[in-house]
Amino acid sequence: MSPFANFIAGSWAGSDRLIDNVNPSDTNDLIGRYAQATPDQVEAAVAAAHDALPAWNAKGLEARADVLDRVGRELMARAEELGAQLSREEGKPLAEGKGEVYRAGQFFTYYAGEVLRQIGDTAQSVRQGVDITVTREPVGVVAVISPWNFPMATACWKIAPALAFGNAVVWKPANQTPASAWALAEIFSRQDIPAGLFNLVMGSGGSVGGRLAAHPQVNAISFTGSVEVGRQVAAAAISNLTKLQMEMGSKNPLLVMEDADLDIAAALAVSGAFGGTGQKCTASSRLIVHEAVHDDFVERCVARARALEVGHALEPKTEIGPVVSAQQLDSNLDYVALARSAGCELVTGGGRLERATPGFFMEPTLFTGTRNDMRVNQEEMFGPIACVIPASGFEEAVAIANDTRYGLTAGIVTRSIAYATEFRRRSRSGCVMVNLPTAGTDYHVPFGGMKMSSYGPREQGAYAAEFYTTVKTAYIQPGPVA
Prior knowledge:
Aldehyde Dehydrogenase, Chain A, domain 1, 22 strands, 14 helices, alpha/beta, six-stranded mixed sheet, Aldehyde Dehydrogenase, Chain A, domain 2
């Protein structure tokens, strides 16, 4: 099997350092061997990106828009093929893998349109005869550091706006999902773009990510990952005053009020908590339930969770795939043991599952009898584990929901307009869902959180311009009329 190389300065660049990419649904299935970028290759990628900027910005707007549109349309056309590959290496069910690749394509087609919607402002000066224009210009070289749980979608919602607004990209994907990254790089390798405009440097966070974060020629960093790694990125970047955009941890609440339709509430909770094997930053890990409906709600959730089909990601009947790695599975099982030792009641799941192929399969797991101050309700577990927290009423439920260092998404299930309106106003989270799962957002509107979930400008939609551009104000005094 030939190794898969990095893409630097318009050419494929191999390396003596390789990692094996193994299918988490079947650890006997070797997907491929992927090059790990050397320090010299990271330097070369940043230099190439810097050199490509003038040529990219010299291209007309339509030419730039056409590049993004072609990339997006190819991703959508190949969603079935590339989605199967994504599911094979990440472990999410086939339908989710295909949907993610299609959504990745939509980011590119959306931002192809944004290329043509870059319109500046004018103003009158307080000084007679002086005109003012306000325009946006690219920040320069953007380092993209993306996670494994959405290896296509998250990367593309960073790369597409970066290029749309005139920047060059050096991309470090997660080492758990290099095949999806390489597939996108291969699409870019066939585009009519300046050499070095788009670069793929695969490798570990410590060797490649850290070098990018501290690089003086990197003008902006868009990062998605944990708070702990985010702090390291920020510490490395601050010496260069590098612009930062970071999406980090979460501990998302779903409130179930006494007036909720409990079948709908249970469906939303199970989908939000266990979809994607719970490996979503928007997953519902804290289910805050009015005590009047607590037992009925739990009963419905248990029935739905036990009915979920856990299996190989590429099997059509699979609803929950494996977790991404042995390390992640061990972490999940440690949290199960922690919850039980703290006195939580395990009402379903909690264990590893054996299937026809060796993989990292885990039962959807639900605990009751939990308190919000427990570690399992304060730390991001990133697995198919949810905890039910009882609340005496709306006020206590809102207080519990906000009692966390995170603030990405939050949801409420209720028939009450008053509850919905008040929760939307008082929730300390960046995205609020009413009668919808906490997991699931649109690509044309801003995405991001509060508190330690996010740092810097929002991602997605037109709001992405705040990060990928810098504002220039020009004062002009026309000369005398001839």
